[in-house]
Amino acid sequence: MPEQPVFPARAGRRRALPLLLATPILIFGLAGCASLVPTPENIVEGVVEQVAEQSGEDLDVDVDVTGDGVSLPTDWPGLPVPEGRLFSAIKMGDSFSLSVEVDSEDTARATADEIIASGFEVLSETDYGELKGLVLKSADWSIVYGWTVSDEGITVSYTITPVTS
Fold this sequence. Notes:
Elements: H1 13-28, H2 40-54, E1 59-63, E2 85-92, E3 95-102, H3 105-117, E4 121-127, E5 131-137, E6 141-150, E7 153-162
Antiparallel strand pairs: 1-2, 2-3, 3-7, 4-5, 5-6, 6-7
Helix pairs in contact: 1-2
């Protein structure tokens, strides 16, 4: 699927960025509702619709639910990405959000460990069985990294924002 058009900057940036950053946290909140565990399709659909509506920043969206593939943004900060099928890559301003379908929880955890080994501090870690997550920080980046396990498979959600203070 070809890249979606870039939307021009508008005044609503302050509303869209928190939404983009909160998406993995909102996903984690569904842990108690096994039937509501997100699938790749509904994660992407919801995030893209809401971010596109509220974006006040140039938005670069690459989404794939058909299997044709997605590419990392050209200015991706070089952080590890789990091995699997990248089905969404969103760049808004200096922030990034990825969704990757992986084969196992071990793959999801191995990438988290690789990020930590590259100099990130673990600020918090959660484990709700089907839903696991970490909040990580380095001098340059803050990361919300998590994965869900459902009948549809295992999905890693990965949001990166620059440290501003």
